[in-house]
Amino acid sequence: MATNLINVTKTLQKLVINSRCGFSPTLIRSTDQDLTKNTIFYNPSRNTNFFNKLPASDLWKGITSVSNAGKKRGRGKNVSKSKIKDLNRGQIIGVGKANIIWPGLSAPIIRGRELVEQQQLPEDPEREKKLNQLRDQMGTFKRTKLSPIERDTFEGFDTKVLELKTVFNMKGNFGRKRRLSVLAVTGNKNGLGGFALGKGLEAKTALRKAKNRAGQNYIKTILCVMTFFTQYGQTKIYVWKKPEGHGLICHRAIKTICETIGIKDLHAKVEGSTNVGHIIKAFFLGLIRQKTPEEMAEEKKLHLVEFCKENNYFPNVIASPKECRKAEEIPKDEILDFTQYCFDGKVVLKKKKFPPFYTKLKSYELYLKRQERIRNQQAVRNNLIAEYGEIQSFLTTQYPECRQYKLPKKEEEEQT
């Protein structure tokens, strides 16, 4: 009897150790009439495995992701996140396969004046079907988001290419990859414009990308450009406001931008780097940051007055602040010059013009002596034709013989 009890206790100790390691014991009593011949059997079974050690995100990642070496070789391009399903979707805490009412979890503890007790309800055969439908419909109900290209029609917009070049990208596994880069600007000639950079294997693809991106990132500006200074990197641009009919006297990139936006009169000078991308960015920054005459007058709290040669330098007040400062309130070192104020105190670099090298030669002196007798001859001829209608002397009214008796060959050809 004592030996059997010792064997039973040893077996129980082993069971406890095995249960801690993940084995589940099973107690089976023998049918023998002798109670001392009871035996205990246990079946080894693991309760922990790969699927309940890791979270669901890591398990899905093991199915849908690709290794770094596979990504370099172009694998996993067709694998999408839409295949991932949330298995907890549609499930409620306290509700499972066994349809049981749990007071305080899936049902209230007190209902009216009665205390709710635990109760088992009949199983729902449609539960699994409904959960599978919810999991299959994941990712299908998405809000339709339209891009700016689909929202706007972009009617009246014109696109021009500023730079088209071939670029190369070198990689260790793919080698040298060739693409085309297009820098384009677009505008509607009414104050709207934008620029973008697009790349593609073909020129059409790169141009389409640049055009669409430029349409998405357009800005709005005033057509009457003010005098301003702008800078991006080592590129500096000085812009002067000009009257109507002056035209566009500036860099080709700035001229193209003005034509697409609708600016007609402007003079600009570029200093420093002439990188086309930097010039475009600097000019657009200047268009955004430029100040109106009202803002300038309000910032300085002074009247903005214009002196024009066409008005005989008569002062013309363009903008006035709400409260104007007096002469005593203006400090002596304050910048009152309009050009320097618009250029943030910077001065345009004016290079000294040196005379040509041939002015020091002896032959140039002889040339000037020969040209002295016909100096300003063409200007005098043009003035006579404009005033009298023909080349004649101021004494022709008194002496009719003072006329040009024979026209030069060039004038005869022009008249015929």
UniProtKB/TrEMBL annotation:
It comes from the Eukaryota. GO terms for biological process: translation. Keywords: Mitochondrion, Ribonucleoprotein, Ribosomal protein. It is found in: Mitochondrion. GO terms for molecular function: RNA binding; structural constituent of ribosome. Its main location: mitochondrion. SUPFAM superfamilies: dsRNA-binding domain-like, Ribosomal protein S5 domain 2-like. GO terms for cellular component: mitochondrial inner membrane; mitochondrial small ribosomal subunit. The keyword Ribonucleoprotein applies. Residues 157-221 form the S5 DRBM domain. Belongs to the universal ribosomal protein uS5 family. Component of the mitochondrial ribosome small subunit (28S) which comprises a 12S rRNA and about 30 distinct proteins. This is Small ribosomal subunit protein uS5m. It comes from Aromia moschata.
